[in-house]
Amino acid sequence: MKVMKFGGTSVGRPERMHQVAQLITQTDEPVIVVLSALSGTTNALVSISDSLAAGDREAAKQKIDALHTHYSNFITILVEKEEFVNKAIAIVEEHFEFLNIILRISFSEALNKDILAQGELMSTKLFSVYLEEKGIDHLLLPALEFMSIDANEEPQLNTISNKLKVLLQQHRNKKLFITQGYICRNARGEVDNLKRGGSDYTASLIAAAVNASVCEIWTDIDGMHNNDPRVVDKTMPIEILSFDEAAELAYFGAKILHPTCIWPAQQTNVPVKLLNTMQPQAKGTTIAEDAKSVGIKAVAAKDGIIAINIKSSRMLLAYGFLRKVFEVFEKYRTPIDMITTSEVAVSVTIDNAAHLDEVKKELEPFGTVEVDLDQTIVSIVGNEIAETPEVLKKLFDAISGIPVRMVSYGGSKHNISLLVPAAFKKQMLQQINKGVFGL
Ligand code: ADP
Ligand code: ASP
Ligand code: MG
């Protein structure tokens, strides 16, 4: 069994969907295909939700109508024969009827999740109609029947695996399954999701759940590149990454992968491949246990970081101080990314500002608290990075002139992280591309 996940751009145009149908039928193994929403759809749904949350029904209605037109046009090219055109129209009408009904009911978090789920529901149903038109035997497997998160919003691999195996067993005669990325049920049984970009996570969870031979993530680029192609001009694909390296890159901002999508594959040792739908013959990136080489492989950047510095002369030689500081973050369920300490101060970074005010208030009795918004973590990632000759010299030479606020080295064998004001991100990535990667 193999898993093939196609992202928003891979299904964002009817011709691309046609191409996806070709790719998934070129294999002898049974396949579970995971689809994202058409590109732009989830952003549009978030925006519709935001308008509703703000009480602006008129704006929400306009956005729903624009999206409706987009889908109506999409299906005219997706399918040809009248029977399938009618089926596709019925799907689109059903989902937009739902979106129009929500205009009249009061907004809630549960409703928001229902709205966000429409994209993946539509893309998979429409793709299924296209496959039907082409006579490609398959089964639409509803993710809401097996993908779930617990009360801490964590997917439970065992539960998912058990449910999925039962479903697959019921359809032993099928070789091709289509399911939705991103969406799931929460502990209350409501529709929920695995956070933005979460279709990769769905794919990896499914791959782990069925112990797949491979988890292929098909996207719009030929694998993980050494630097962010949206920020610097010249980047190159990396052929091999270890799970640890890929997890660090995803966590520290390489958008090609959802931050937590590596662990399920790693846990079950299922290789992950990053491939390009528009260039299927390109090698892409293979992610597996062994990094195959030592040294720097890539740099990534994570935006929206907040630095918090707590300065206290009482910290001097005091044990238990850090515990008290960490307890505040634990209380407000706010994970810490980076940490540096000195004898009298500690600096940490967080990316979740939801409880910033409460955290700040509870830290104030410990000393002077300073908060810097709008920071970026730049992470240099590679297997046994410390063993790269003169790695720090090379890095610091490359970034001369950039005001670095924090440095973290040694916590992980695969990562050096630097915190800089967001305004310096582009310059930093460009200088690293030149000075470290020689590009
Ligand atoms: P999908 O819709 O298929 O999930 P995403 O937009 O989520 O695709 O991810 C692919 C994009 O990730 C690429 O188009 C690229 O711009 C961006 N990206 C950011 N950093 C990297 C990187 N280091 N290597 C490759 N792509 C990256
Ligand atoms: N459609 C969702 C998003 O845009 C999930 C995904 O594409 O991975 O975030
Ligand atoms: Mg993505």
Structural overview:
The protein is α/β, with parallel strands linked by helices and 439 residues long. It is built from 14 helices and 16 strands. It has helices at residues 8-11, 14-24, 41-53, 57-78, 82-102, 109-133, 157-170, 199-209, 243-251, 262-268, 321-331, 356-363, 391-398, 425-435, and strands at 2-6, 31-35, 139-141, 176-180, 183-185, 191-193, 215-219, 240-242, 272-276, 285-288, 295-311, 336-341, 345-350, 368-383, 406-409, 415-421. The strands form three sheets. Strands 3-4-2-1-7-9-10-8 form an eight-stranded mixed sheet, with helices on both faces. Strands 12-13-11-14-16-15 form a six-stranded antiparallel sheet. A two-stranded antiparallel ribbon has the order 5-6. A hairpin with a 5-residue loop joins strand 15 (406-409) and strand 16 (415-421). Helix 5 runs antiparallel to helix 6 (109-133). The longest helix has 25 residues, at 109-133. The chain is globular. The chain binds adenosine-5'-diphosphate, aspartic acid and magnesium ion.
By CATH reckoning, the class of the largest domain would read Alpha Beta
Question: Which geometry do the CA atoms define?
Answer: globular
What is the CA-based Rg, rounded? 23 Å
Find the structural class using helix and strand composition: alpha/beta
User: Remind me, CATH topology of the largest domain?
Assistant: Carbamate kinase
Q: What is the mean predicted local confidence, pLDDT?
A: 95
Order of helices and strands: EHHEHHHHEHEEEHEEHHEEEHEEHEHEEH
Number of helices: 14
Low-pLDDT regions? none
Largest sheet: 8 strands, mixed
Total number of strands: 16
